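Predict structure. Chain length: 246.
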Amino acid sequence: MTILPGLTTTVQDEIPRFVADLAESDVRTIAFFPTAIDRQARSALYRELERIDGLRLPHVHLRTDCDVSEIDYLVGRFSTEVFNVHPAGSRHPFGDIPPRLAGRFFMENVEVVVSDSDFDRVAGICPDFSHLEAARLMGRTDYYDTTMRQLSTRVVGCCHVSAIRPGDPNEWNGGPDHHRFVSLANLDYLVRYRGFLPRRWVSLELENPLGEQLDAIAHLSRALGYQSSTLPPYVSPAPKPTVRTV
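Prediction complete.
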């Protein structure tokens, strides 16, 4: 298992600093979250990332306007292995998924849980553990229980890890989940879900600078008892038996 620092795009003024820090570091494997920038801005950012020799983006969170040509570009240019998207019932549902790429796609639990029909289109689930922990803390029992059941019955292909800051409501739904940590302790909740982490990519969805994210990776590795590892080439996982939920 490898914990990846993440390049997020929600705070666009901070993207240049992250890219510059990345270029000056020896980090060459990151997760990419281009969900807040349009096609033109993504194209410009790709040109910047192409200048970083050896950079890989094994996990990418696709935006709804990403088409097949962009997906193929990511696979070919940045060795992207897995993609996550939002389910049909969410505010930002992803459209058609090419059958030839379905084995690389995983559905994320967002403001809604993933439905059975969503799972029919993809290889498994990409749990956002901060959304899950926020649901637990906020007493959203149905959401929590359903997602936990899915983690036990579906392939976990990748995941998101953000911060939990109890008593500090976020702007979008008043929950404690945030894309920036103010203390490394904001990440300790992940230990609760240690048994459900993916085999390969644990992706930090954080707005913190690269250096702070590397500190977070070291902290989480100690807390979870893991070390980063070099893994073999990606092979689409065999699906777990389908379990219908009511």
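Summary: The CA atoms of residues 130 and 182 lie 15 Å apart.
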